[in-house]
């Protein structure tokens, strides 16, 4: 579970963002801007990140605040799972990234696999829809829903991407160092449950 200070900061940010979107009164707008600044300061105090960076990443959106969607592709070859090594932290993850406007979740999964690993795939099954705060990821300024979509290889060959520098398949008992901001060991084990039991129900929350 995420720390309380992060939960409060995100709640304050959400309240402020909605208020700044829908309020007309100049005094209310000032108050909501103050609430937004408090949320930024909470995050800065606990992370030592510069306020300007936090505002750009954490308090830069408009409109009603909603969760972001992170989509991860689960691709098996035999009893091994496809993973890519992330350039920015040197650790491994399932191919994936933020959902794209105009694309369905399965289209995003297919696109991300191609861009990050070189393989052509087709999406065949939804494995899980998770709330990131309920799983052992590092604290995140965003409220994120994670979708895991199983895909099947139909072509292509291993190829590094712009954000990845290695492509490999791993057995469940020989997993590499994971990029836990993107996926956790328990989530990889959940994926293997679906490999071993195709009738496994979709996991949520």
Automatic annotation (TrEMBL):
Domain Nudix hydrolase: 66-194
Pfam families (UniProt xref): NUDIX (PF00293), Nudix_N (PF12535)
Record has Hydrolase as a keyword: yes
Keyword set includes Cell membrane: no
Record GO terms (molecular function): hydrolase activity
UniProt entry keywords in alphabetical sequence: Hydrolase
InterPro entries: NUDIX_hydrolase-like_dom_sf (IPR015797), NUDIX_hydrolase_dom (IPR000086), UDP-X_N (IPR059176)
Family, similarity comment: Belongs to the Nudix hydrolase family.
Protein name: NUDIX hydrolase
Species whose genome carries this gene: Psychrobacillus vulpis
């Amino acid at each position: 579970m995420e720390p309380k200070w992060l939960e409060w900061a995100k709640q304050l940010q959400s309240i402020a963002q909605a208020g700044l979107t829908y309020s007309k009164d100049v005094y209310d707008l000032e108050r909501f801007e103050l609430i937004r600044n408090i949320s930024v300061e909470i995050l800065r105090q606990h992370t030592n990140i510069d306020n300007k960076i936090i505002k750009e990443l954490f308090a830069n959106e408009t409109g009603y605040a909603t969760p972001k969607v992170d989509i991860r592709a689960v691709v098996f070859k035999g009893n091994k799972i496809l993973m890519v090594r992330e350039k920015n932290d040197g650790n491994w993850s399932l191919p994936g990234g933020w959902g794209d406007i105009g694309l369905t979740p399965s289209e995003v999964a297919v696109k991300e696999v191609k861009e990050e690993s070189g393989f052509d795939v087709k999406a065949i099954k939804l494995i899980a829809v998770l709330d990131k705060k309920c799983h052992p990821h590092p604290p995140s300024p965003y409220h994120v829903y994670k979708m895991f979509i199983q895909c099947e290889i139909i072509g292509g060959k291993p190829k590094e991407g712009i954000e990845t520098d290695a492509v490999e398949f791993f057995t469940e008992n020989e997993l590499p160092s994971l990029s836990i901001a993107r996926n956790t060991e328990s989530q990889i084990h959940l994926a293997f449950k679906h490999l071993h039991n195709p009738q496994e129900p979709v996991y949520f929350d």
